[in-house]
Design brief:
The chain has 17 helices and 49 strands. By secondary structure, the chain is of the alpha+beta class. Strands 21, 22, 26, 27, 28, 29, 32, 33, 34 and 35 form a ten-stranded mixed β-sheet that branches.
Amino acid sequence: MIKRTIIRVIALFFTSLIFAQSEIEVVDLQCEMLKNPLGIDVLDPRLSWRFKTSAPNIEQQAYQILVASSPAQLAANEADLWDSGKVQSAESLNVFYSGKELDSKQEAYWKVKTWTNEGETTWSEPAYWSMGILTYAEWKSTRWIGYNQLFPGDSLSQFSKLAARYIRKNIALEKPIKDAKVYIMGMGLYELYINGQKIGDQVLAPVPTDYTKNVKYNVFNVTDELSVGRNTIGSILGNGRFFAMRQEYKPYKIKSFGFPKMALQLVIRYTDGSSETIKTDESWKFTADGPIRANNEYDGEIYDARKEIPNWNEVAFDDSAWKNLTWVQEPGGFYEGQMTPNMKVKDTVTPISIKATKSGSYILDMGQNMVGWLQLRVKGTRGDAITMKFAESLKEDGTLYTANLRDARATDTYILSGNGTEIWEPKFVYHGFRFVEITGLSSKPKLTDFIGKVVYDDLETVGSFESSDETMNQIFENAYWGIRGNYKGMPIDCPQRNERQPWLGDRTTGAYGESFLFDNQTLYAKWLDDIKYSQTQDGGIPDVAPAFWRYYGDGVTWQGTYITVADMLYQQYGDVTSIKKHYPYMKKWILYMESNYLKNDLIAKDKYGDWCVPPESLEIIRSQDPSRLTDGEVLSSAFYYHLLKLMEKFSGVIDANPEDITYYQNLSERVKDAFNTKFLDKNKLVYANNTVTANVLPLAFGMVPKEFEQDVFKNMTHEIEVTKNSHISTGVVGTQFLMRTLTEFGRGDLAYTLASNKTYPSWGYMAENGATTIWELWNGNTADPEMNSQNHVMLLGDLMIWYFENMAGIKSDPEHPAFKKVIMKPDFNTGLKFVNASYKSGYGEIKSNWKRDKKKLSWEISIPPNSSAKIYVPASKNSEVKINKQPLDHLATTIVKQEDSLVFELPSGDYSILVN
């Protein structure tokens, strides 16, 4: 079956513009998998480009795209695949390919030119993509190979141990090679080699899925690695999520998939026009008696350098003693080209100290809670075992604090070969850690013996933020480290203990905030697929997707993430495709919840409540004080209303059946009426038991009757300021809407207080107590270790959104998504003295740098080409405002007075705004 889904093909190329000595940047933002995007498995990939110019007021009026099957044809403007012709359109993002139907493994070369209000551009330099394997039938003759048995030294238990499989195959190529691509599915994780050379710089590949539902393949161009004559293909298979994530342990809860396996096609085209495909079969050889003795994401990797196999992946190696692999059962899931990037080593960390302990071990401090692994440089005696145990913090006596890891052993072991200086790092595990206890060293180590490798999905950092408040700046830094550390081919909750699961509720709003820091579109588009594949036949959605844990709680606040993430993709990236693709399944869930749980137009079904509200005692995890807790029926019903309104919006976006819109409108009105009837106290003008969450949700969702809005808001702020002493009192659910709602109702100053607090409970309290990421609990340094991960992101709520949209004033207009039009409306009255922020949108970089004192406000902004902005300036008279040293009237044609601001629009360009 050929799929039509969200794909983002990337290519960065430049050419001069006629109207300015600058450039047009062809950038299909849809899949930054490799330098050139390979293995696209949809028929209509989307093409995008952005202008790179300092010229102001640039608006695209038309474009023309040429797509050809060879570079030569494209250079000659012979578009044998597609010539769009001159299309009158301002759209430069997400333009669907609409040419000839593309075949499997088809190559496509494309370029674009545009017409703007300033003239016609020249053609861009060519960009490129290639199609993947589009049908299951083309994979069918490629056999899955593996070894479904334990090898000596392997074991099955709660702490299963399985050595890596080393696989090889010699091949003979007799003709000159034009090009070659390899298509590989290596379960659970793989490294691929040709003639001893590692292919690609990815790690922990491919991205995880529920392998019974879908399996991702990677594609690499290996033309340069092959030569005429004998060649060797080699791979190492690690366990990943496929095997040994507590294999054979709690089978009622934890899903397992079997022993590692692989399917591979090497497609070679020769210069004489012929081709050859080399596939996995029973002739491939393997051994598990190599140096990687065990690899388990929870427990670590054991590497015995004495068992290294020199030149095992090269032609001259004698593999006669190796076993033949056998054909094994396929995983069961549909084969899909992986359109989101693999993980890579994205950064390095140098440790800041190393201290000896009384027991003779050493404690290494990285200075930063990070996710990845440690590279070791060591000399010693053959057979010496160096162990590295990882943790996020220390006990008071200076030893590792590991109680919060639960039963994750989080330990790597390296056994020395004794051959001089040895440098090692693991291949198939990662750890969440700041501290490492190192034992087994025969001499005192140096800091230079260790390098921390930071590992996460290869996503571009697109946002920056700095303000006059150092606490807020440190929180931003902590969020940056926490978010990227928990990107592991899917968004996980934590990287250190025996969990590391993609909980839906952690990203309900978090995904939106994260998008201001990282270009996370393909990650979350893939995650929507994970959720869809996890949906039950009757419509239920799990708490965790992929459903590695069989948790189907049928709540609303967690499961509704399916809908809110789709909305984020539309708002931030203009991604209509994800809405179209998932709309039937989201609707199925809406109907499922209505038919099973809607009673008297309200939903009482709730599993987790307002998870992790600050408890009354610093030593406990969950509050037992009823006054702090929000009724689950309030949470579920309010959230269900919010989701119904999003579905109503989606129906309009994709032009769904008009009956759908009527259904969502009618049902949402019924829910709102029932909600207000039951929970709105018209005497006190508060909701339910007057928790901040109980009030902020109906305020944020527009459920409060207009005549009561200000009173409800006033009573909510009284609860925050007086009862809670201007501190956070919300959990995961309430915090998702708290900061924006305070600001939108005129209390940005109170939101700023919450953001800059240093005392408990607050984000600043975490930073003041040494946090370099975001804790799972507001009291994560004192609560029972059963649940106090020091690297979670769920409590960020809408804080990062608030930083960018409300403090910096960088917000995409909902009526013109993907920042086609930017709403620039910072709250200048919070108490901050300056904010410097930037965000790289699909149209280019947006900047907002402002500084104010008692006399004036200076504001530097940049609006990217082919975009525009609605500007809100705090002034009452036009004469108080100058732009680029000119009176406001000279630049803005339409100026509207709204409350305490002047509002006007500006085209693309750089502007210096001064308000006296």
